[in-house]
Amino acid sequence: MGTGCSVDANAILQGDAALQTLVTAIKSSAVWKRGNNVIVTVWDENDYGTEPNQVVAIVDTNYGTKGIASNQKYNHFSLLKTLEAGFGLEYLNHAGDKDVHLMSDLFGR
Predict the structure, then answer these.
(1) How many domains does the chain have?
(2) pLDDT value at residue 7
């Protein structure tokens, strides 16, 4: 465990409870039931190890197929590029790099 890694079970439980409160509120709203909406949850904790940092990303939409798992390796710029593409925006920074892939398998219909 590195300096930035939290092993405080209470802090993790508090984070889980806060996330559950937020997601429940969003999914209970009238807006969630209309249009195409998505909640993206990313857990990113650098353990300061020598292995490449892998993080969990959960994409929850109010449309499309549920329970899809992707085998594609994405990075933070993939999420940025996907959101920018969804809003028709130009790509910022490395999101525009050719080797950065859209997360279309997770956001698709």
Answers:
(1) 1
(2) 66
